[in-house]
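Below is one protein, fold included:
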Amino acid sequence: MSLTTREQKEPSLAFGGQAVMEGVMMRSKDHMVVCVRQPNNEIVSKTEELHSLSEKYRFLKLPFLRGILALFETLYAGIKGIYFSANAAFGEDENEEEVLNPKEIAVVVAFAVGLSILLFSVTPFFLTSLLNLGGGVVFNVVEGVVRLSFLLVYLAAVSLVGDFKRIFQYHGAEHTAINAYEAGVELNVENARKYPRFHARCGTSFLLIVTLISILFFSIMPSADYFVRLSYRIVLIPVISAVSYELLKLSDRYRDSRIMKVLVAPGLALQHLTTRQPDDDMIEVAIKAVKEVERLQKSV
């Protein structure tokens, strides 16, 4: 049976998403939608209009600066989506405003960033330093391998936890729905099920790019004493994230290129750890989120 496509004249909208508790969050340029499957099997939705700082400060739309801003705004929106989904998934009557405020979200984001720096930057550097490899390219490559190993072990361990297995299934549903949307097919469960649970713009691929860019950056930085080299691992995080963001956007722009398909293959392979095959109910939730954010964005 052939798939029904949208009219070619209809413009494509760029969406991003995230799995949450028993649901999916979808974001467009101006809106965020969170759809969650409740215990009574109904799907509850929350919509919110987004106001990026780049609307007020235009210079934040410049290449590289936009990547740093996107990182923090994504974390901020993600925490809000998780709070709402946790309440909705467990059938709580509290609304989101009663359980968190911007200051609380900022604290959670700061804690998450600090923990990530400690686990994936400081600790790999410290462990590699114990090998007495000096401060050259060999040190940076080994450190990159240690950092990547930490990431793989962390993802593998998290995937074994029961609740995270379902979140990873919703992560797969998110990718499936976006892939179906970007293919231009009629959005329904039957059609979406035919598309893969992997996507080149996924944050998992972003983490792999960050690791590889880190090796390059630290290799070209002047060798110095222990604490100066350690400071590089912290101070340069925004720069590395910004470059990685631009590379991720570039990979999506030229995703049909054979060369680019080869380059993004490791990132897609890594998504075997962060996604699981979703069931039809999960795909239905993801599709609802895509349709709602599409409707809102087209109404702007």
